[in-house]
# Entry
Amino acid sequence: MINLGTDMRVLAIIIFVATYGLIMSNKIHRTIAALLGAVALYVFGVLPDGMKIFTDIIDWDALGLMFGMFIMVGALRESGFFRWIGINTLRAAKFDIIKIFLLFSALTTLLSAFMGSITVMLFMASLTLDVCAMMGINPIPFIISEICCSNIGGSATMMGDPPNIIIGAGCNLTFGDFLTNTAIIAVIAFAADIIFFYFWYRKELKGSAKKDTKELEKMKASEAITDKRLMIAGICSFVLTIILLTVYQQIGLSVGFVGIIGALFVLVAGGSKMPEVIEKVDWLTLIFFAGLFIVIGGLEETGVITIAASYISQMKGGLLAISMVILWLSAYVSAFVDNVPLAATMVPMIKMIAGGNAAHLDTLAWSLAIGTDIGGNATPIGASANVVGLAIAEKSGYRVSWGYYCKVGFISMTIAIAVSALIIWLRYFVFA
# Structure
């Protein structure tokens, strides 16, 4: 006798694995792979209710916030805001190589807490290459440190990295929740990592040939701003979004609607360049997420995630053991695969493991966020920031091999995750 439930679970797993394989293979665009998986689930009857796919399975909250972030970051980029920050950072470092290295890493961490890591690395890698060329130094230590700091910084807030948006929306968490939990972990992990990078590269940095800095000193921060109105509108929209993400539950808003409000504010107040900003929105990424939510929904609707969650929840050691497994497993998996589908897969799983216990769910959510965000530091393909940063460096003639990057990145990731594990253990289990 055919067990229809079991057959559908097997089919959902096959489609999920096939979709994931296509995403990892890079043979077709990841958006196309996600859409193929979503359509297959419907065609083969795993998700027969087409209306339910759009009403219950797609996480519109996450998509709405991402859309808002794309608009706000795009506005700031068009206004020259990022270059303005970079020039001011150089002046604060007084053009000292070691200070520039430390401040550029810190700036990358800070920016990545509020903006997409791809945007941050596009700006920081380009700025770093220009600065290093003028100062006659090797930019690779800067680029690798900035990549790792970008992923650490992205773990600090709800709007930092896409996995955090997915985790926050899926677990009903606020900006303030992330700020008082993952942000603290991220700050300490950054401190540990920057100490590692300082000692790893200090001889190379101190031994670099320092050229005349007159060209750098001529740069004026005020000249970097190309549209002051747009910059002010972008900053104000960010501040408004952060405030609303902190109180959205109390005032009856959804996370997605908060993102829409932030985008609408800058669209109305931004001026003549807003059509260009809208055209540059990464629509393919938004569609990719929608398709991915449907593929994950196939596992959830057929009970696959429930079964997996029940096995994990029975682990010896209870919540502490489960938290550590989620932290380290998600970190190592994220080193080789996209952390977005990993986070999307794990959110419904940790919700089932928590079983309605809000405190348990929060602890698991922080472990998942830290693991998926920081784990990408280990390899050149672990996160989008890695790919973008290294690609920009290679275009300028600085190629980083897999072996060289992994030697540094794996140590960086291990230190950051180990420090994070210690903090999670102390804060949520020893001094809870």
The chain is about 80% helix and 0% strand. The chain has one domain: 4-430. Residues 4-430 form one domain.
